[in-house]
Amino acid sequence: MNRTPLPPVMGWSTWNQFRQNISEALVLEIAHALVDAGFTKAGYQYLNLDDCWQATRRDTQGRLQFDAGLFPSREGLIPTLNALGLKVGLYSSAGALTCEDMPGSYGHEAIDAETFARWGVELLKYDYCHIVDMATDPHHTDDSFPTHTPPLLYIGIAADGALETQYPAAQAKLSGAARLEADGLHGLSCGQGNAAFAIQAPSAGTYHLSIGYTKSLALHERYVEIGIGGKTYEAWFPRSSGWSDTGRVHVDIQLEAGENVLTLYNPMRGQREDSIRRYRRMGDALKAATASSSAKPIAFSICEHGRTQPWTWAGRFASSWRIGPDISARWGSIMACYERAVSLLPYQQPGAYNDPDMLEVGIGSLTLAENRAHFSLWCMLSAPLVLGCDVRRFTAADLSEETRALHGILTNGEVIALNQDALYLQAKRIQSGEAMDVLLKPLLGGGMALCLLNKSDTAQTLPTLPLSTLAQADERIAGKGLGPFRWRNPWTGETGEHAQALESIQIAPHDVALFRLTPEA
Ligand code: GLA
Q1: Could you read off the pLDDT of 206-226 as tens digits, one per residue?
Q2: CA 127 to ligand 1 centroid distance, Å
Q3: In angstroms, how far apart are the furthest CA atoms of the chain?
Q4: Whether the predicted model's global pTM rises above the 0.85 cut
Q5: What residue's CA is closest to ligand 1, atom 6?
Q6: 409 partner at 20 to 30 Å CA-CA among 117, 158, 289, 445?
């Protein structure tokens, strides 16, 4: 990857607290609160409108549009938010609809990316709903998601305004499992074979390609890719069988003058390939829409819920990828998100982050210790820091002690600095027990952050922690962090010098102890 790494996104999103009940008035109040209560200054730059900012219909040009009743200024809201110092994020889905049944971007990637870029959007959260027909296929498993290619009969090529020339399947050069049977060409599915047609084009330009096929009753749309000299086109075959035995589908293609080889193949072995394709399409569309030097870059936040292991493929085009289902404001849910993220360390790269989901700090009935632990862990894990709580509570004239403490958690610059550190590396869990985990995060300049997490319901006291031994457990630090160390606890402000070890640290239930360690030698 040759892009300059960016730190994890920091911002606020409408979803966790407000769900579908959002409006321009609310968003403006939140935006002002983010500024007035010091959140923008602390680094929370993005304001993301999650699901339900859209109207349920595209406009006459096929463009997504704001729900004009809820957002009377429509996209005019974006410059207003920019003027407050905020970057604006929007939400869409890689399916036909979003999770709240608004229009999704599938099949509209180019026009949507272009619309977002033109509006000045700087973050796209891209969800994974309505991907397959949920009525017939509620489980989304690979087995139930074959995406096969039907038997192919011929391809036809026509220049605009000219008659089609047909090339029957028998003329194709077949490889792998590809074979000709009475009803057409079989064996292209699941990357098992391909068929190459050599065709002649009188001149370079756009041509209409038709693909004839034998129909059969199918639960899903079926698919084939057409490779032509390094370019890939996609063709989809409808689900129903229709009234006749054969059908044809169309794609516009570019040909060179003279001989062109059209290779038909289908790399999709199941839902994983399909998912990659959907997200790659939007990633490419965003790249194209923001290619000019005057365009604002759009951070691409993939929200695929971990169904097809996005950590194995999303780093190529996304800034972050959700690794599991939605978080909720319960300690158990926060621990489940943490567990998944901590185990996915090998997949994180600078600029591309595991996303255990948005912050629940300040929502529901988490204790202060739980809020502090949740926030510390997300910082250690280099997770996107996206607030979900109603930040208007932080602007009241007279803050309660609890509200002040929550504000202190969310705006603690030293803890945020761990998340945004310019080595861009997520913490490694170097010890794990029933009650306690120990995490280490390498920092720019040779330092490291140490986080001791008490997962249990009882207070824990840790015996002596020899720091250089701990440092040796992380190969990214080993050899550098030999100490002695200066340390500072960013939550309590306590500090120490010339430390070889930390002694008898007490940690309350569901809480953390956090240290920034700097080698003195
Ligand atoms: C999914 C996502 C959530 C939120 C909703 C909106 O559940 O995981 O974060 O975006 O959709 O409908």
Answers
A1: 999 999 999 987 767 788 999
A2: 7
A3: 84
A4: yes
A5: 51
A6: 445
